[in-house]
Amino acid sequence: MRPARRRRAAERAAAAALLLVVATACGSRLPESDFEHGSRTPAPRGGAPIPVGIVTSATSPVGGDTFTGPGQGAKAYFDRLNARGGIDGRRVEVHECDDGGSGVGDNTCVHRLIDEDKVVALVATTALDYAGAPRVSHARVPDIGGQPIGAAYDTWPHLYGIYGSSAPRNGTPGWGGKLYGGTEVYRYFKRVKGARTAAVVSYNQAASAAYARLVQRGLRAEGYKVVTEQVDFALPNFRAAAADLKEQGADLVFDAIDGHGNAQLCRAMDEVGAKVVAKVTNVQNWTSTVPEDYKDSPRCRNALWANGSSRDYDDTRNAAVREFRDATKALKTHSQWQLEGWAAAMWFTDAARSCARSGITRACVDAFVDRSRDYTADGLLLPVSFEPLPKPPKTRRTCLSVARWQDGRGWVAQGDMNSTCFEVPQLPYEP
């Protein structure tokens, strides 16, 4: 099996498009001359704390809870680690920074964490506009387990997204400005659920429509009949879209709309009696808030399916998941992004432990993560690697984690993610 770079590289486009539907975030980058910094700043020796940084767009225009999950998971991991003695007797000291969802704010956070707080690494970065990425790379600060909302983790060296990358990462996104995504999600529902007709719902807004076209292309490559439904962004008529997808016999529903729109769409589907095999969502919406978010649509709610590259946070049969849930039981809600933030913190810890004898420096931690081949965070992630390929692959064997929502049970894992795998084409797109 080839290393899984990411369940579907196009999720970057998904996250960015859906967020841009409901918000516009802009900023400017600082001059590269402001970014000069040594690459081997060590953490203090002896029993001094090991400083790490977490950048989160906690107060971004798209809502206060949108980006907080990975940071919550990472902090929970470090809290438990410190309670058990830290790393070689040294406590991990977490420095948080909210960039406000803007490029200017992100650059400010990066400058503070790297140059003032002297962090050894960034962990579980979740930024709407990661404008500071070039500065992080230039300073050779490892950024470990970040969420690839944009193209930064397929562009810059020393940045290690939670799903891995096989791109050259030489300062240009992907290969010559193009990223590639597989069709494994569509293959899964075709093979496992027998789906043949898929509806794609989008807004009449540029980012939403662009992502919808990407989904449609992948579906057609897998032989689906594709039903397109576009609603007005300002005054969406979801009932009409739901009625049409019912009339055309859609087995699946994919979307390029925001969370609020999804809830309205599901309500409309219940109202018109549209029954589907699956209403498919992504890892960002894989949360415990489903009963509240979809309270008015019980039929559609119980047709929700999520897919990603990490083990279902509700699958407490797994020992690593049980540890995560035990450490986060005080949180009001749970999500897949929290589990992935936990995995990112574990990844940093494994790297730091490997460096304990020689000195926990940026360079040593970076070298450990860069050498990662099939890293799994104790089985919480599909195997993650950073082995650049000179040319993009035409096909790839890719695995995925799949879960469906069931009232009274939560998210129920569908098979084992390490064996739910398909050899699928890789389709190009521009970030």
UniProtKB/TrEMBL annotation:
Statement: the UniProt record of this protein carries the keyword Cell membrane: no
Limits of the Leucine-binding protein domain: 49-408
Keyword Iron: no
SUPFAM superfamilies: Periplasmic binding protein-like I (SSF53822)
UniProt name for this protein: ABC transporter substrate-binding protein
Signal peptide residue numbers: 1-27
Coiled coil: none
Keywords attached to this entry: Signal
A family per Pfam: Peripla_BP_6
Family according to the record: Belongs to the leucine-binding protein family.
CDD domains to which the protein is assigned, alphabetical: PBP1_ABC_ligand_binding-like (cd06341)
